[in-house]
Amino acid sequence: MTLEEKAGLCSGADWWTTKGIERLGLAPIRVADGPHGLRKQKPGAAMAGSEPATCFPTAAGLAASWSRQLAREVGAALGVESRAQGVAVLLGPGINLKRSPLCGRNFEYYAEDPYLSGMLAAAFIEGVQSQGVGTSLKHFAVNNQEHLRMTIDAEVDERALRELYLTGFELAVKHGRPWTVMGAYNRVNGSYACENDYLLRDILRGEWGFEGAVMSDWGGTNDRVAGLRAGLDLQMPTGYGYTDREIVDAVKEGRLAESVLDESAARIVRLLQMGAASAVFDKDAHHRLARKAAARSMVLLKNEGDLLPLRKTGTVALIGEFAEKPRCQGAGSSLVNPTRLDTARAASASDAVSGLTVRYAKGYDSRSAEPDPKLIAEACELARGADAVVILAGLLETDEMEGADRTHLELPAAHNELIRQVAKANPRVVVALSNGAPVTMPWADAVPAILETYLGGQAAGSALWDVLLGEENPSGKLAETFPLTLEDCAATPFFPMGPDLVEYRESIYVGYRYYDKARRDVLYPFGHGLSYTKFEYAELRLSRRRMTDTEELTVSCKVKNAGSRAGRETVQLYVKDVQSTIFRPERELKGFEQLELAPGEEKSVTLMLDRRAFAYYNVELRDWQVESGEFEIQLGASSRDIRLSERVHVEAAQTYDERRNDRRDELAAYYDLSRLPSVDTKTFAALCGRPIEADFPPSKRRYHRNSTMIDIRRHWIGRILMNRMMKEVEKGMAGQEEKTVAMTKAFIRELPLRNLPMISNGMFTPRLVSGLIDLLNGRIVRSIGQFIKRT
Q1: Dist. CA 618–CA 252, nearest whole Å
Q2: Alpha-helix runs per DSSP H in 528-640
Q3: Cα 525 from Cα 431, distance rounded (Å)
Q4: Which of the residues are catalytic?
Q5: Domains and their CATH numbers in the chain
Q6: Cα 539 to the center of its chain, rounded Å
C-alpha cells in the first residue's frame, strides 16, 4: 500500500461512504445515522429525504424501559435494516450524560446515570453487531450541550470526568465491543476531542483496550495530523483531498511517523473487511417491535384513584393535535422517515379500542405555543360529556433539536392552559406527554393521572392505547430526574456558558447524585415509575458482612407481585458510602434487574458488586480507590423509594492516607451543597488542580480558523457572508419542515471557519479560508495572495 493510499483511507470518499482501494480488492463501506432508526440518505436529498425505515422510540424512551433485552432486540432489528439497505456501520448509540435537562439533544441520549447508560448501550451494540453490522459509540466525550458544540472547551475536573462522563463509554466499550467510536466536536480540558491524546490513546485504547476504529463526528476534525497522532483513524465526511495531502506532507517532512499512519490504515482495513451480506427485513414485524418498545418505554408518573387503566366501555375525550400530528421523534441527524405512522386518533378506531366511544378535539395548534381560546373552549365542551379525558401534550418540534439547547423547562403555554381548563371541566383527566426531556408541570396537582410517553417512534399512537386500556401494564422507570424548577438543577448556573469555555463546576453532582445529596424536592425522582399492580420487596441478603475490595459481594432479595395484574418491576441497586472523607453522592446506581411476575408470583433477584461499585476515582493515585469503612447496600423502586437496606464493611487492599481527601476548608461548597451554586472559577480551578483560563471578550480577539460564523458577524465582511449563507439555506430548503430549516440555521451560525470546505462541497478551499481570515484581520496583501493561489 502506497503512502498516498494509506493517507486516502483515513478520510471519507463523500458524506456517507469511506474510501476503498480497488487494486487491493478493498471495497468502500457505507455508514448512516440511526440511533433509533436507520437514516440512509437518498442521493441528492435533504435531511428529511431518507429511505423508509422503522422509527423506534428515541434513546430517552428506550432508557426508560430499563430493559437490556429490549435494547438488544431493537438493536438487532436496526442491524437487519442496515444490512437490507447496504449500510455497514450504524452511527449510534449516543450516550452522552444528561448533565442538564436543557441539552437540545437529550432525546438522543439515555440517562443522567453512567451505569444505566453504559449497560443499555452495551446491549444495544450487541444487538446491532449480532447482525454483522457495526456501531459507532458517540460522542466521545463530554459533549453535553449543543450551544457552540463545535468549538466550546468543556472544562471538567478529573473525578467528574472519570466517574460520570467516561464511565458510560467504558462500560459500553468493555461489554459491547463496538466496531467504532465517534469523537465529539468539542474540546475537553483545552484539547479537541478528536485530537485529544489523553482520551483517545491513554484511556480509550490504553486503559480500556479498545481495538476498533475511531472516526470523527461530521466536521469534527480540527488538526488532521494531530488527530492521527492521537489515534483518530477516520475523518468524516470527505476532506476533498486536502487533508490527504496534509498527511502525506507530514510523513514526508518527518512531522508524523509513518508507523502511526500504518496503525490507522490497518484499523480501517479491518473495518472494511467486517461487513455482512445483505438481508431483507419484515416491516410488519419491526413495526410490532416498535409498538412493544414504545409501550414499555412509557412511564406512569401518577395514577390517583386508579383512573388507569381506563374502562373499555363508555366515552373518552381525546384532546390535543398531537393525536393527529404526533411528536414521535426529535429533529436533527437522527430524523427517520418511518415505514408507517400510527396516530393516537387513528388507533382509537382500531379493534382494540372498539368498546369505547372516542371523540376528538384539537385543543391547540401543534406548531404554535400560543393558546387558542376557541380550541380550548371546544375541548372543554367535549370533556364535560366524557367519562374520561386523555390530553396529549408535550414540546413542539422546534423546542428540542440538534444544534440548539432549550432555554426553559416549560411546556408551550397553549398546552398548559388547555390542561388547566379541561381539568376544571372534567376532573377525570389523563395527561400523556410527548417530549424528549424533563418538563415542569404546574397543573400536576389538578389531574389524577400522568403518563410520560417520551418520543415513542412510529407505533406510539397504538402503544398509547395499549397502556391506557391495560393491554400493556406500564413498567417504565425514569432514567432522569424531573426537577420542580430549572433553578433546582446543579448545572443551571454553569450552563451553557461560553463563548470559549463551559465550566462543569458542579463536578460529580449531576441528576439524582445532586438532588438526593442536597435533599432537594423533585417533581419525580430518578428511577420512578408506577404500575397497575403492586410489588413487595423482602429478604435482602448479602453474601458477606465484611470483605476486602478484592472480593465480590452477592446481593439478593425477593420480589412479589401483590396485585391482580401481571407486571414487570425493575429492582434498582444503589451503594452509599457511609463514612467517606471525600465528597461523594448520597447514593449511586450500581446494578439493576427487571423481573416479570404473574399475580401473586414471587421471584428472587441476584446482583453482583465488584470493587468498582465501592470506588471513587483518586486523582492523586490516578486510579480507582476504595475508602475502607461502612457501605450501605440499598434496593429500591427509585432513588427516593428505597425498600431494603443493609450495611457491609469493605476493607481496601491498597492503603492510602484518606485524610488527604478531606478538603472541606478549600472546597467547602462540595461538602455543603447549599453553597454549590455560588462556586466561582477560583474554587473550581482548585478542584481541577490547574488554572482555568477566563474567556476573552469577542471584541478583543483576532479571527482564526475556529472562529464561528457568529464571531465574524462583528466584521462587515462576516455579516455579508453570514447573510448570504442564511439566504441560501432558505432558498435551498424552501418547502421543507420548519424543524429541519431551524436546525440547519443553528448549525450554520455556530460553524467554525475551518468547516467552510465541508459545507461548500470543497469549493471553499482551505487556502480560501486562510485568505478570508487574513482579510478579516486586516492583512489585505496576504489575503490577496491566498485568494490567487486558491488551492
Answers
A1: 42
A2: none
A3: 18
A4: 217
A5: 3-38+53-272 (3.20.20.300), 287-514 (3.40.50.1700), 533-662 (2.60.40.10), 698-789 (no CATH)
A6: 36
Q: What is the 3-state secondary structure (H, E, C) of 430-447?
A: EEEEECCCCCCCCCHHHC
Instruction: Write the DSSP assignment of 76-108 as a string of letters.
Output: HHHHHHHHHTT-SEEE--B----S-TT-TTGGG
Could you give the CA distance from residue 454 to residue 434 in angstroms, rounded to a whole number?
5
- Euclidean distance between CA atoms 223 and 617, whole angstroms: 31
Provide the pLDDT for residue 354. Answer: 81
Distance CA 452, CA 433 (A): 5
Q: Is the separation of the CB atoms in 512 and 481 below 8 Å? A: yes
The CA-atom distances, in angstroms, between 520 and each of 300, 330, 488, 616, 743 are 22, 30, 7, 23, 35
pLDDT along the chain (791 residues), means of 10: 98 97 96 95 71 97 99 98 97 98 98 99 99 98 97 98 99 99 98 98 99 98 98 97 97 98 98 89 98 99 98 97 96 92 95 89 97 99 98 96 95 99 99 99 99 98 98 99 98 96 98 99 99 99 98 99 98 97 97 98 99 97 96 99 99 87 91 95 96 68 91 94 91 83 88 94 92 94 85 65
CA distance 752 to 763: 16
Three-state SS string across 616-674, please? Answer: EEECCCCEEECCCEEEEEEEEEECCEEEEEEEEEEECCCCCCHHHHCCCCCCHHHCCHH
Q: Which positions ≥6 away from 652 have C-beta within 8 Å?
A: 548, 549, 625, 626, 627, 628
Residue 526: name the closest of 66, 58, 172, 35 by CA: 66
Report the alpha-carbon distance of residue 767 to residue 758 in Å, rounded.
13
User: Which cell numbers in the block locate residue 51?
Assistant: 429511505
pTM across the whole model: 0.96
Q: How far apart are CA 143 and CA 109, in angstroms?
A: 11
Distance CA 168, CA 97 (A): 8
CA distance 337 to 80: 17
Asked if the peptide bond before residue 93 counts as cis, ω within 30 degrees of 0, the response is: yes
Dihedrals phi, psi of 443, to nearest 5 degrees: -100, 5
Helices vs. strands in the chain: H and E counts, helices first: 23, 29
Please tell me what DSSP assigns to residue 204: I
Which amino acid is located at 324 in the chain?
E
Q: Where are the beta strands (DSSP E) in 267-313?
A: 299-303
Task: Show the CA angle centred on residue 636, arms to residues 634 and 638, nearest 5°.
Answer: 120
Chain centroid offset of residue 522 CA? 22
User: What amino acid is encoded at 357 in this protein?
Assistant: T
Q: Hey, what's the cell of 280? A: 431483507
The gap between the terminal CA atoms of the chain, to the nearest Å, is 26
Judged by DSSP in three states, 681 sits in helix
Those residues with Cβ within 8 angstroms of residue 720's Cβ, 6 or more apart along the chain or in another chain: none
Q: Tell me, what's the pLDDT at 44?
A: 63
What does the pLDDT look like over 591-622, one tens digit per residue? 999 999 999 999 999 999 999 999 999 999 99
Long-range pairs of 660-666 with CB within 8 A, sequence gap ≥ 24: 660/620, 661/580, 661/581, 661/582, 661/618, 661/627, 662/581, 662/582
Rounded Cα–Cα distance for residues 585 and 634 (Å): 14
